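Data card: per-record layout.
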Amino acid sequence: MNEIKAEKLQFSYTAEKKILQGIHLHLMKESTAIIGQNGAGKSTFVKLLKGLLKPTAGSILYNGKDISGLTAATLAKDIGMVFQNPNDQIFKNKVIDEVMFGPQNIGQTEDEAQANAITALRKVGLEHQAEQNPYDLSLSERKMIAVASILAMNTNVVIFDEPTMGQDYVGKQILKNIIAELRKEGKLVLCILHDMDFAAQVFERTIVFHQGNVLLDGPTKEVFMHADILKKAFLEQPSIIKIAKNLGIDNTYLTEEELIEKLNRVVRD
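The structure for this 269-residue chain is written out next.
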């Protein structure tokens, strides 16, 4: 079981302004989307989980152990994070070296790291670019290199920060498959998103951050039913829910397939 508990978690850069107001969250097996407007505290929260920041109050427990004071390097074997901007993560001159760096840094042998790197690059569709310079590739491809770098480390917790940014349909499908596979492997998958459609289609649980607090938390379908509360957080419902409403369908459908099935039933009836 991989689980994280945040208890009375607070963070502030200055005494006058708290970024996180006192977060209580128990993150377990569900794949979880974390949504909210810019400045809501989402990125600060996951940086605390990864050890990139230290709480000003409260604690973070990983599988029962307090990790609040541990560094990102110490947590690297357990918690992997794909940054929003891949340029903040990539520094090698060759794709395969970039993807191998993390695995080797946590103790994998060169052969293990290379095998895991190739497997990870295959998962993101970039095995044919292994010998290329990452900065000769597009931003969306560099984003996938960053994803592969974390996958190759085989951490128990995987955090994605805006993985769909700059991705086309094919890229999003690749990410969906990766998240589903991680979930089947028993990994704890957390994802910061502004893409409500992707959140609705992929994640079992959704948490809404607003002004440093948790405004909503629950099964994704239930969370997205609360249009009034989402509006308070300056968020919109997914497109499929809007379409269903315009068609006079009351139930909440999160994917195109669900809505089409419902429409087919209506036609048959």
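Known properties of this structure: The longest strand covers residues 4-14. The chain is about 40% helix and 25% strand.

See the next section for split statistics.
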